[in-house]
Design a protein that fits this description.
The chain is an all-alpha fold and 272 residues long. The chain has helices spanning 2-6, 12-37, 43-61, 65-86, 91-113, 118-125, 133-152, 154-162, 164-169, 174-196, 201-215, 219-244, 248-271.
């Protein structure tokens, strides 16, 4: 069985999938800690739907989806933060509003253009095996940028995650760093859509953090545990998709759910 699984590494598409998947898993785990603790984790779901709408519209107009989706999703992230802060509408309602609107616009554009359903299906449910060399290069560049910015501004992101009011009182530009977090999340969501799809990418942001928080209480330990769990979930899901001939994205989500349930039970037993 192991030899059978390892034999797939001789193919370019599998090596591309492995590189892209690991990078996205790491980025989602890191950003997910701040998003979940700030109770804004569903922004990933909202932005993924915006990414789908932008990608579908780009395909309908004959443009490269990635180059249209990234700036569109970043703008949407800024607008969602701004509206959430200055409007009477709460965050969940804004995300639902943006998500449904983006899906409707993308699907309508695709239908009016007379295009097929293959590319749209890939963006909805993921198609990591179709990742090209160009996609790998773009993913590596953007992922390294996300990780570098996260490391450089780690202390500031930590401050706005736990006590934004106190951080503002000490002179931290909370608005700027919230915008940075939103931008990094937007970029990660767009490049992760090829792996998990618009409907599943938010699970890679939420599950590892929720699972890690069942076992750890220290911020740094939660980050480290989230990274390990996220990578494990991806690799296990990828292996299962090969063995069972299932979708990689849905397999990763199922593994993430199973790990969450198991470790939640283990964590409760140790607490007792």
């Amino acid at each position: 069985m192991i030899e059978y699984i390892l034999s797939f590494l001789q193919y370019d598409f599998m090596r591309n999938a492995l590189i892209v998947g690991l990078l996205i898993a790491v980025c989602c785990a890191l950003l997910g800690v701040s998003l979940v603790l700030k109770r804004f984790s569903m922004i990933g779901d909202g932005l993924s739907h915006v990414g789908f709408g932008a990608s579908a519209l780009a395909l309908a107009l004959g443009f490269a989806p990635l180059y249209v989706a990234i700036p569109t999703v970043i703008i949407a992230a800024f607008l969602m933060l701004r509206i959430n802060k200055n409007s009477k509408i709460n965050g969940d309602a804004i995300i639902a509003l943006v998500s449904s609107s983006a899906l409707a616009i993308g699907y309508t554009a695709q239908k009016l253009s007379g295009g097929g359903n293959i590319d749209i299906s890939n963006y909805m449910f993921g198609s990591i095996y179709t990742v090209s060399k160009e996609d790998v290069i773009i993913t590596v560049i953007l992922s390294v940028l996300v990780l570098a910015l996260y490391v450089v501004f780690y202390n500031k992101l930590f401050a706005i995650t736990f006590d934004e009011d106190f951080a503002a009182a000490t002179g931290v530009k909370t608005g700027a760093y919230n915008s940075l977090l939103a931008a990094l999340t937007a970029v990660t969501v767009v490049i992760g859509m090829r792996m998990m799809g618009a409907l599943l990418i938010s699970s890679l942001i939420i599950f590892p953090v929720l699972t890690a928080s069942r076992l750890c209480k220290n911020y740094r330990s939660v980050i480290i545990s989230s990274l390990i769990i996220s990578v494990f979930n991806f690799l296990t899901g990828l292996v299962l998709s090969i063995v069972l001939n299932t979708s990689p994205g849905s397999s990763v989500v199922i593994v993430s759910l199973a790990v969450f349930v198991i470790l939640s039970v283990v964590g409760r037993i140790f607490k007792k």
